Please model this.
Amino acid sequence: MRMVFDPDEAEGLRATARDAALEDPTLAYVLLDVADRGVDLNRCRTWDDIKAERGLAEDTPVTDGQRVA
Model:
């Protein structure tokens, strides 16, 4: 299953990407990709799946130093 955005939503993502391009080019790239291709929901993982992969306990708080890619 794929989630796609209507033309107005996609244009909003592109506008945000343009605004973020100089400060955070990786974010801009991801936003443009999502605007163009949508999101493959079959490949998404839950936050619990990510925490289990990282070896974090269920009740472990996430700090600024723990970013998930």
About this structure: The two ends are 22 Å apart (CA to CA).
